[in-house]
Every structure is written in C-alpha cells, then in structure tokens.
Amino acid sequence: MPHLIKNIIKKCFLWLLISISYHQVSAQNKVAPLGSWREHYNNKSVQHLVKGDLLYGATTNQVFSIDAKNNINFLGKSTGLHEIDIAAIAWDEAASQLVIAYNNSNIDIVKGDEIFSITDIYLSNLYPNKKINAIQVLGSWAFLSTNFGIVVIDLIKHEIKDTWFANNTRQALVTYQTINTSDSLYAITEEGLFSTALKNNYITSSQWKKINGYTDCKKLTSYNNIIYAISNKNIYQLPQRSSIYQQSIGTINNVLANKDGLYLTASDGKSGYLVNLNTTSTVTTLIDKTLLAAPLDVVIDNTNIYIADSLNGLLVKNTEAHFIDLGGPSEKIRGTGFVNSNLLLAPFGDKAAGFSAYNETGWKNYTKLAGANLPVIASASIDPADASWWFSSANTLLHYNINANTIESISPNTVLGNFTQIQFSTDGILWALQDGQGLAQKQDNKWTSTSLPINYLKNGLKKMVVNQQGQAWIPGPANQGLYVYQSNKYFNTASWKQLNTSKSSGNLPSNNVLSVALDNAGSIWVGTDNGIGIFNCGDISKEVCDAYLPTIKNTNGFLGLLLQRESVNCIAVDGANRKWVGTQNGAWLLTADGTAIIEHFTKNNSPLPNDTIVQILIEPQYGDVFFNTANEMVSYRGFATEGSTTQNEIQIFPNPVPPTYNGPIAFRGLVENALVKITDISGSLVFETRALGGQAIWNGKSLKGNKVATGIYLVFVRDDMGNEKTVGKIVITKGQ
Length: 736
Known about the structure:
The protein is mainly beta. 1% of the residues lie in helices and 46% in strands. It has one helix and 67 strands. The strands form 18 sheets. A five-stranded antiparallel beta sheet has the order 1-10-9-8-7, with no helix packed on it. The radius of gyration is 30 Å and the shape is globular.
C-alpha cells in the first residue's frame, strides 16, 4: 500500500462569523482573534460546483457552501485547508465529507470539523506530470483522474488504495474523467474510452476494454445508466458513434445529465451559454452571453440551476437569473492602496477600472462615483482633514467629496506623465509623484510642480514617502539608487540629492531600490534587492546622508546584513514601530530597530496565497495587517495598534473569556507603551506587561506561567508620566 502522510487538523471553521446572504455580505467580526487570518479574495473565479448536504463550490483559491437559507460560508487556508489553486471537488454522500484536490496534486478531505491531508501524490516522484483532472466518488472510494492514471482513495481510511491504468499497462496514461453505470466503470483518456466491470479484481491487469471511437472526447456524464461522452463540439450517447448534439458557437465546457435531458455550458472565451437538450432532442438556450462569459460547471438543486462562471461568479437561475454576491474585491488588487482607522481603499490598477473599499461592513466595489464611470486607478489616499478620497489615474488626479457626493478631475500641471503615487504629509500638503517629471504639491488650494534635475533618469518613478521635514524619498528607476527632494519649508535650501552605494553618498546596500517607508521615530527605511538601509538625515544640502545598515545574527551564528540578498518589495510600520517587510520570500516582522526577526510568514506556514508580497497595509486601530500578494490579498490580526493620545476607557477582547478560549487576551486603546498591571480581586499582582503601541497582550497566565483560576481580575494602566487609573475588570471562566 502506498505510503500515507495524513495530518488531521481540528478547527472551528469560523463559518458562522462569515455567513452572508445572496445579495449582501454581512460584516465580518472586526475584532477578530489576535493572530488570526482572513482571506480577501476575488470570488468571481468560480470553477467547480457539486451538490452534497449543501451546495458546494470552489473558486480558484477557496471553497464555499450555500445552505437552504442562502447563507454562504467559506473554507480556505485561514480555516484549515492546506493549499490554494483548487483543481476539483467531489462529495462523499455516505460519509458526509468533501474531497478537494489541488493543482499541485495535494488532497484535503473535509469531514465535519476535521481536515485530512493526503500528500502521497504531491510527494511522489514516479511521474513528472501529476495533475488531477477530476474526482468521482463511488461507494467508499474516490477515483482521481490524473495525468498518469486513476488514483483510488479509500474514503474510510483516508488513504491511497491503488493506482489503475485503463490501457492495462503500468505506463502513465492521461485520464480525464471516470463515471459509472450500475455494472461498469468508464474512463476517458488520451487514448480514448475504456470500460471495466465493477465486479472485477482491479489489481489484476488486462481488465479494461477499449471502446472504439470517442478519441476526441475529454468529459463524461451519465443518467439512468446511460453514458454520454463529450468533446469540444459534440455530445455522443453510448454506444452510438454519431453525435446527438453539435455546438455551433464556442466549445462545450461541461455537461450535466438528469431527468430533463442534458444541460451544457459553452463559451468562446468572451461569451457564454447554458443550453438544454431535452429528452425529445429539443435544443433551448436558457442563458446567453448577456449574463455568461466563461461558464465551466452546472448543478441543479430542486428548481435552482447554478452555473459556475470563472469570470463573472456564481449565477443562479429559477424563474429569473441573477448572480450571487460572494463578497470580496471584484478584481485583483494591482494598484497602490491606502488604509486609515476607518477605511481601506484598494485600486484595481492594471487594466481594470475602479477600486474596492473595505471596512467593518465588508467589501464594496466601485466602478462609478457620483454617477461617473471610473477609469483605471493607480493609487489612492484619504485626506486626513476632511476624509475625502483622492486617486491617481494616468496624468490626472481624482478628488471625491463624500459629503457632497461630487467628483472632480484635476490636472496639476500641463506636462505629460502618469501620477503613480499620492500622499498627504503630516502638515496637510498633498504630494503627487509624476512619472517622467517629478513632484506636484497642493497647499492652500494651490498647485506647484517640481521637476527632477535634468541629469536624473525620470521614466519609472513608482513610489515615494514624505517625512515631517518636507523631504520626499523616491526610489530611482533602473538602478539609480534613491532620489531625495528637500523643500525649503523646514530647511533653508530646496534641493535634490541622489544617493547610491558609495560611502558619504548614501551607503545603500544596493542601487536597486524597491521600497521606502517612514517609521514612527522619523527614520526612513529603504528596501533594496539586497536588504535594508535606514536613514536619519538632516539638511541634505549641507550634510552627508548615509544609510545605517542593520545587522542580524544568522542561523550559523554569524552577523550579517538584515535580509541580505532578499528583494524588499515593501515595508510597513505598525503601532509599536515594528517593521513588516514584504519580499519575494514571504513577509517578515522585525523589531523596531531591525535587530531581530519576530515572524516570517510564507505560503507554507501561513494562509499567504503567494510568497511574493507587493504591498503591506496596516490598519492602525485594530492592528490588522493586509498583505497584497502576487496572487490575492489576505490579512492578519496583529498584536500592535496605534497608541491613543490620552488614556480613556479601553477595550478588552474577549471579555468574559470563555472556557474554550486558549488564545491571547487583548487590551486595546492604550496610550503608547503603557504599563499594564493585572491583579486579582484582593489586589495581588498576577501579571504585568507593556503595550505594543496601543495594545497589550496577556496569555491568561500568571507571572510564574500558570493558568489563572476562574474569577474576576482588575486591570490597571499607567503611562510614562505616571498617571494611573483603574481601567476595568476582566472575567476569566476558563480556570484550572
């Protein structure tokens, strides 16, 4: 029997926290547990559907279910799945479990609150191409049609039982799908159609028989012991050799057979169709290209017909047809986003017009504002003075006044060049970076422009950050190091300076600068393709401006440069001044000074869908860290928040602490670096800690490391000025 690696993960899927109705996504709990993850995927890429105890579907990266009350629940890496990029799903009715196969050939079986992982195919080196094409469940077995044969899984033991080859050899045979009648099993392969009697001993070779014809077919379906073979254009009813249906527009993607005949989905890449071929051979187009673009799968549940459209999402047809809102951004996020304590703005960028916005009520997608169609948006920001929204699009800026519901298009200057990033500095000035030109600034409703020096390479300006001294730090394109512009508002001399790897001229770790960030102490952190440099510069027109290159102890015990040989795509700063760094090798959490690595998240040890991190955004109030990857966006509930200016009432989560809770307890809304003391009701000290920014964490244990007993505990907070106050009480119900 093949070797089995089986990993059982018991999890609460949090499905009740993310239930949504057909038309409106309910708010995900804003105060999520510390250290928890959430997916923020574009859920329009619906690819697979199956009817089980619920209706199940799969997008590219996660599974969803719909119950009889139209509640939608999601299951992804944050709730226990081991992979993304789903290849196929199937329902095991006998054991009430869902079988999920991934494109990397891993397998998950979801049964209740358990997930069984079968990694044998993924780990095997027997065949170079192990792609899983389809899953069929028959009794206690699942047949996986792969690019080398049929893998048989024992659904009771959750292990691989055997591998079959329909051509009766032990040579790899691309198998597209299997299906059965009451007495036979059929397999459609690259060599055509084969069948075998279900009562045969499958381990013995030469049991499969070739059925001539059907060599152009790649899919099968059946109803009432009738088998249908499907090619790109034709449907055949066995044993007939001539087609009973021919698709005239596009190609056939899938066919479902039931008592009403055949339901087939077809598309030509832009237009999609759902067609019914009934039992009298009458052809009816049920849904056409006005709604469908790329329908891949179809399922019938009572009077509802569900269609998986990989471009438009999930469509349901009853008396009428409409799409079901699965939530999330309607496009991948390819622009430069912005977040404050109230809202995250995420431009689609690339070639998709509009943007998504996220707050405690969930995601909302915008292709229009104030009745006007939106263009492709490159970057976003929010004015801290009036909360109005600003966007850059090509060589114009867009300003949306929320209260007046008006939008204006602004051209700050007459020179050509796309605006790639916008930012408000702490003094309220709006800065805009213009590719091929330089900078534009808006102050007191007046615009001024500042061109780059004539000897600077101008094409390829993408990012910038502005500090409190009116200095704009801009990664130079094409290995030009770092451009720094200094206005004359804080220093006497307005000037430009180009920094490079030379001592006394920048001391950068590399001239290929990829990112810049301003930390809470005013330092400029610069990410390159060879690690990080930190700047603390004064008047650049008079003083040398060199980077400090932080060092860190490597696994071999020797000191080395921080993230040396890593490409630092982005840097973000949390409420405790710690640095979140996005690279081609996942996300790193560093201490405030960069001398130690606290966390390193990758797609293999976290719900990150991809190791290439393109932007990190940190919501200051709750500490949510949003990772926009080369694939999709996810978020992590961090342990640090922005500190309050004054110590008022704090929030404690959870409170009371339930008996089943074993996670950290968070105290939010503290002044920065506050001292937190926890005592029992008699005043004896139980625990004390310092806040990370504006949030302190307690693990529910005493200073000696023992779990505290059930009871009421008092919380005291003191800031660095010595002001102390009783904040409140916390109830522990999970005692020893």
